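Below is how a single chain appears once it has passed through the pipeline. First comes the sequence as given, then the structure the pipeline wrote out for it. We keep one example in the README because the format questions we get most often are answered faster by looking than by reading.
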Amino acid sequence: MKKGTRVYVKWEDISASLHDTEELDPAVAEVCGWVLSHTKRYLRLATCRYLGTANDEKDRITIPSGCVVEIYEI
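Resulting structure:
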C-alpha cells in the first residue's frame, strides 16, 4: 500500500481474561487513516493529521501485518 493512501483496516487485537473458563476470541477492531508505511511486518497509519502545524503532528497507530483481516482504499 502506497504512502499517503487513505485506507479502511479491519484487524484483530489481543483479548485477555483472568480467572475464567470461557473460550475467548480476539477482539475485532476497525480504523481509517492514511498510510505512513507498509512493510511485511507492520502497517503504520496516521489516524488524524493536524493541518497547519509546524512539526507535522499526527495521531498514529502501528498494526502488525499478521493481525490485518481486511484492508482497502477509501
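The mean pLDDT is 93.

See the next section for the split statistics.
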